[in-house]
């Protein structure tokens, strides 16, 4: 097979002063930050669905993308050719990981058995390319939202046949993820929600989702898959309300259905925005529960109210993300997965490189700034001092559950009033953070 990107050489590190758009300015894979290489800190992953299946279509127009390696057919042969083109891209970009949905990489057939054979044929090529390049699978997942059989949901569908088909699809997706050495597996409930409550038994649907995930946990153990399961929150779109609406809702669901020990969260910036949160908020919620596993790296347009999946270039955003990643001790099986797509107007193959280079540089720079902020210590010291009143004997006893309301009332009666309240100094802290940019 001829090269898919014949004019592109392996992307090199040129440094901050480089003017070459096909060089990294900040991402130097072997550079150590805090005793670990950037490669190991960031664990960059390219998504198959947007990068190699995205057409550039939108509700008002057909696809615009020029992809010379792809003949546009749904044949297995074309899917295998596309897989080799994808690995050429991963290799030239220097990305150590990729991620996919089952239906991204292989076409559906006339039956589930034929569909599984199609997937096996392409997975064989993926395995060969992984072996050739050393590139790994960050995580796999099943597309349980595109086919019309999932119009009412998959694991939450009122139709048992749809639930059954989804279970079979996840079983196969878990098998191929395991076969390819995937380091995790993600569940994204694209249509696990409702459009109207007039036709919805919410409690029963959530019970079915809990049962579905328990079956997946059981099968994971059966086949010996060691990677974590992730749930990816998103509040809406395509449904009016999705059950995995934000990090807190996901954690509540996992606790309710006794799944916390088996799942972590894969968080996405654009989904956080749609939920009315900052990404740092979602990451802190997950971190607080010990459940931050991986992130999808993108951003949205604040003037548009839908999931635009743009590449992240805001260094303040990436710094906030990396502060939270460093706070949890770094990724283990997760990583920075570019669930992002080039704009409809950026239709040439080279635009895929520009987009990923920009996102990788933004996260590399964010990593360095986040590390510098932590090394500096002033931000952490301020937060620690703000809560200093809790560090005495009484504060420790309250936190340990050793104090009653009556105990605190007795103390309050002797206090008079609250004597001093310290300023939150938001503006001071914003100025402090600006020193690092």
Automatic annotation (TrEMBL):
EC assignment: 5.3.1.5
Organism annotation: Aquisphaera giovannonii
Residues at which Mg(2+) 2 binds: 268, 271, 307, 309
Annotated cofactor note: Binds 2 magnesium ions per subunit.
Cellular-component GO terms for this entry: cytoplasm
Residue numbers annotated as active site: 101, 104
Matches recorded under InterPro entries: Xyl_isomerase-like_sf, Xylose_isom_bac, Xylose_isomerase
EC class (word): isomerase
Record's protein name: Xylose isomerase
Cofactor(s) needed by this chain: Mg(2+)
Family statement: Belongs to the xylose isomerase family.
Gene3D superfamilies: Divalent-metal-dependent TIM barrel enzymes (3.20.20.150)
Places the protein is found: Cytoplasm
Annotated residues for binding of Mg(2+) 1: 232, 268, 296, 339
Keywords: Carbohydrate metabolism, Cytoplasm, Isomerase, Magnesium, Metal-binding, Xylose metabolism
UniProt KW Magnesium keyword: yes
Subunit structure: Homotetramer.
Record GO biological process: D-xylose metabolic process
Chemical reaction(s) catalysed: alpha-D-xylose = alpha-D-xylulofuranose
Alphabetized GO MF terms: magnesium ion binding; xylose isomerase activity
HAMAP family attached to this UniProt entry: Xylose_isom_A
Main localization (coarse): cytoplasm
């Amino acid at each position: 097979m001829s090269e898919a990107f014949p004019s592109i050489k392996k992307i090199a590190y040129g440094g901050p002063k480089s003017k070459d758009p096909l060089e990294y300015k900040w991402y130097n894979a072997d550079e150590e930050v805090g005793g670990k290489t950037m490669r190991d800190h960031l664990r960059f992953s390219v998504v198959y669905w947007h990068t190699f299946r995205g057409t550039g279509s939108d509700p008002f127009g057909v696809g615009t993308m020029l992809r010379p390696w792809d003949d546009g057919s749904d044949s297995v042969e074309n899917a295998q050719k596309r897989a080799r083109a994808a690995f050429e891209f991963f290799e030239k970009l220097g990305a150590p990981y990729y991620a996919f949905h089952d239906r991204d990489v292989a076409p559906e057939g006339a039956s589930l058995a034929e569909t599984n054979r199609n997937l096996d044929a392409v997975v064989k090529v993926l395995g060969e390319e992984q072996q050739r390049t050393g590139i790994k699978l960050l995580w796999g997942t099943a597309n349980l939202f595109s086919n019309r059989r999932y119009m009412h949901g998959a694991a939450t569908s009122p139709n048992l046949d749809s639930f059954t088909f989804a279970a079979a699809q996840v079983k196969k997706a878990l098998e191929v993820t395991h076969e390819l050495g995937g380091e995790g597996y993600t569940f994204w409930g694209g249509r696990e929600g409702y459009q109207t409550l007039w036709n919805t038994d919410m409690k029963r649907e959530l019970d079915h989702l809990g049962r579905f995930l328990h079956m997946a946990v059981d099968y994971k153990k059966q086949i010996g898959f060691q990677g974590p399961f992730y749930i990816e929150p998103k509040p809406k779109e395509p449904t009016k309300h999705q059950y995995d609406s934000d990090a807190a809702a996901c954690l509540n669901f996992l606790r309710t259905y006794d799944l916390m020990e088996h799942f972590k969260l894969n968080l996405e910036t654009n989904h956080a925005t749609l939920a009315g949160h900052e990404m740092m908020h979602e990451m802190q919620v997950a971190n607080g529960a010990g459940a931050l596993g991986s992130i999808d790296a993108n951003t949205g347009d604040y003037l548009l109210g839908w999931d635009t999946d743009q590449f992240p270039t805001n260094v303040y955003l990436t710094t906030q993300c990396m502060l939270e990643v460093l706070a949890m001790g770094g990724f283990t099986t997760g990583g920075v997965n570019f669930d992002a797509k080039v704009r409809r107007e950026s239709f040439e193959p080279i635009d895929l490189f520009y987009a990923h280079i920009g996102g990788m540089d933004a996260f590399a720079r964010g990593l360095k700034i986040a590390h510098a902020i932590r090394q500096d210590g002033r931000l952490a010291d301020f937060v620690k001092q703000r809560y200093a009143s809790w560090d005495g004997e009484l504060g420790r006893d309250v936190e340990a559950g050793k104090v009653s309301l009556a105990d605190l009332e007795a103390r309050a009666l002797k206090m008079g009033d609250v004597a001093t309240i310290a300023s939150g100094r938001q503006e001071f802290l914003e100025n402090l953070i600006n020193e690092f940019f």
